[in-house]
Design goal:
The protein has 316 residues and is mainly α. Helix content is 78%, strand content 0%.
Length: 316
């Protein structure tokens, strides 16, 4: 009975992750002292925990889509690592953002797809296999492409240590995923029992990461807060629309367009904030765009899931 109730609570948490993130962000902004015992250095370990959970859920079948439908994955990943970095650079120039904030926006744009995109794609009745395959592929490519793209787009503003960023992404993202994958292989019974609770655990962890970042920078959010919120919203919405449009132009079906749209628009913004904390400590405002993006893309993702889902139901 208790297990049934616990699973119901976990399902509720994962389904309304966007609401949870927004509530935690509001608490952190209004009462930053409530997070005083949790320092920003915890961001990377917490993100590693999310990635470990992702590794627990991965299996070789998730990469099957890469070989079965290489065009779909290629279209999605190319859009991921061109649309979002390009949009970030254009928006920074268009709004003439201060150097620190511009760096944060570019970091968000250069990161791989976020794990929440898989949940949103499922709710939107999109191609879940493609979404998972794209997330896995873009995450594997991230240690190389994220530092390289950041250097290309922000290297004139700040000193970008590509090798150091590569090592950080391997440590925070790739190694925990590999550890989770190994645990899945050697402890299948444990994994089967735990996997149902992982979406809720990831949701709570992501909300906590957002809370830590917002609380640590609550005073700075008041400085130019409106303009950076606008930039983040435009970045995300344009990514969602362009992802869908590119998939349509390339001849992908409706479910595939939905998956590409969500995958391109929803970034691993926790990784962006973690990289900003680790490598650009002299630019504390660089963590802000990642925190705002983490809040906003869960809101927009929920809205898009509703819109896409309604369209899918009408087509049936």
């Amino acid at each position: 009975m208790h297990l049934v109730m616990l699973k119901s609570v976990c399902n509720l948490i994962s389904r309304y992750m966007g609401v949870l993130v927004v509530l935690v962000a509001l608490v952190a902004f209004l009462w930053p002292q409530s997070f005083s015992g949790i320092r920003p250095v915890w961001i990377s370990p917490l993100l590693g925990l999310v990635m470990f959970g992702m590794g627990l859920t991965l299996n070789p079948q998730d990469f099957k889509v890469v070989f079965m439908r290489p065009k779909d994955v290629l279209v999605g990943c190319l859009a991921q690592f061109t649309v979002m970095p390009g949009l970030a650079w254009v928006l920074c120039r268009l709004f003439d953002l201060p150097q620190e904030l511009a760096l944060g926006v570019i970091l968000v744009g250069c990161c791989p797809g976020g794990t929440a995109s898989n949940v949103i794609t499922y709710l939107a009745k999109g191609d879940l296999a493609l979404s998972v395959g794209m997330t896995a592929t873009s995450t594997v490519l991230a240690p190389l492409l994220t530092p390289l793209l950041t250097w290309l787009l922000a290297g004139k503003m700040v000193d970008v240590n590509v090798v150091s960023m590569f090592v950080s992404i391997v440590q925070v993202v790739i190694l925990p995923i590999i550890a989770g994958f190994i645990v899945r292989r050697v402890m299948p019974s444990f994994t089967s029992a735990a996997v149902g609770y992982l979406p809720a655990l990831s949701s709570i962890t992501i909300a906590l990461i957002v809370g830590i970042i917002v609380a640590a920078n609550s005073d700075k959010l008041m400085q130019g807060g409106a303009i950076i919120i606008l930039v983040v919203i435009l970045h995300n919405v344009c990514g969602l629309l362009l992802g869908f449009s590119i998939a349509r132009v390339m001849g992908l079906g409706w479910k595939q367009r939905v998956a590409v749209s969500i995958e391109v628009g929803m970034q691993n913004s926790g990784l962006a904030s973690s990289l900003a904390t680790l490598h650009f400590a002299y630019a504390p405002l660089a963590t802000i765009p990642g925190a705002i993006f983490s809040v906003w893309h869960n809101i927009s993702g929920a809205l898009m899931a509703h819109l896409y889902g309604r369209h899918a139901e009408q087509e049936q």
